[in-house]
Amino acid sequence: MKIKLLEPLGVGKKVIxxxxxxxxxxxxxxxxxxxKTTDIEKLKARSKDAxxxxxxxxxxxxxxxxxxxxxxMLSVAFIGIDHVGQDECRNKNVIISNSAGYCDVTVAxxxxxxxxxxxxxxxxxxxxxxxxxxxxxxxxxEINRKTVGIIGTGRIGRKTAELFRAFNCKxxxxxxxxxxxAKEIGIKYLSIEELLxxxxxxxxxxxxxxxxxxxxxxGKLSLMKETAILINAARGPIIDNDALANALNEDRxxxxxxxxxxxxxxxxxxxxxxHAKNTVLTPHVAxxxxxxxxxxxxxxxxxxxxxxxxxxxxVVKY
Length: 318
Hints:
The chain is of the alpha/beta class. Helix 4 links the parallel strand 4 (73-76) and strand 5. The radius of gyration is 21 Å and the shape is elongated. The chain has a 7-stranded parallel sheet with strand order 8-7-6-9-10-11-12, sandwiched between helices. The chain is built from 12 helices and 12 strands.
């Protein structure tokens, strides 16, 4: 089998050599591209004759997959697969495995960090201190005993709920599929409207699909409390971000912590959220820690090994 890693995974070459060693020892051909490209023709050339491709979050559109005549399996060192040409994968019966679980803790911890920053004014306090100012206007709130709404109760949503539970929070949840594990954590499922109305802190953990694009629109934002904050470390287009910027600037909600946008950073200067009030913004970093980046590389290769021996892992239904 020809197995190709089309982009860097954020780990050193020695790690890639160690992870690919078993492939080579078992007679497979492995090729690693250490520079990322979004050029369609270059991606086609790299994918040529590959039986298995490994990628992270680099786009792999339908056109590239169509040209990869031997492609049978795709291992994605990421959780979401919205950057993959799923139509052509479906046409070619390509198995897609993701790296579920690699960043559950990492994302959940950033959600907590964004929440604390917003409600305790940490970034504003840093600026005030460096500017010779005082505590004036910086009195915040506690997380303790707040009502937290988790929208999307998959692995990351549940891990986030567990961390909020340590702050004695009341946990509400919304998902199209109710999870018994989530209920065991203490999540009470409500309709999306009820959750938005009752929550003090709302954290999004939905995948990006045709159904979830624009899911949090102006109408849903209008249901939130004026004192509530919204955290998005899932996918940017799940929110109508122009409507969110308007809601923030009109003080219809108290704040937002946003790690994901309608495009990958760098974000253009005229993007409304960059100028919205009471925001803490990070450049799609929620998934990234030294520990999680290593885990995702490890899982991506384990997915390939599993498929090769007839025991595929982390297969995504798409």
